[in-house]
Structure of Transmembrane protein 244:
Amino acid sequence: MLTYKNVFWGEKQLLLLTDIDIRNIATSLPLTHHVSMALKVKTAETKVVLLNLLICMAVFYTVYYVVLSIGFAVFKIQMLDGLAPFDFKTNPSWFNPHYLVLVVSLEITFFICGLLFALVVEEWVWDYAVTVTVIHIIITSVVMSEFPLMLHWWLALGSGVISMICGGQILAYCLFKDNFIYPVLDDF
């Protein structure tokens, strides 16, 4: 059942649905406010975000391949497959050295990248970490020609993202605490 709420916007009274999402509420606002909000996004800011994302992607895959190479050398595995960062089909076993290299490399890569992302994007580590991970999932699906449904891969990926975000955000806070952007909670 839909419920309505009276909302005052300046001197105008609006009748809004209360159980719909914010996008629908925004469409109920006067047109002048849409125009002013839409024009606040600048092309330069978008270019900076895309450049930072490109840098983070390059850092992520560079670190991943370096850590994989070290892991393959330590475990004395002869074959370093170029598709190793995207391999979710390897049999999950603690006795399988190939699987161990893949899991340990994934976790180490995510943690190191969280720290490196803090140097690139400062306090926005969590945002870029999630975006890079989503792009990695998409690339993995394309490279392996199927969507990963293996629970062990998702658990490793999830714990890696958490370590990336936590490690990176803590480092960003320590390095940039004088310059950190805190949200204004008075509006909530």
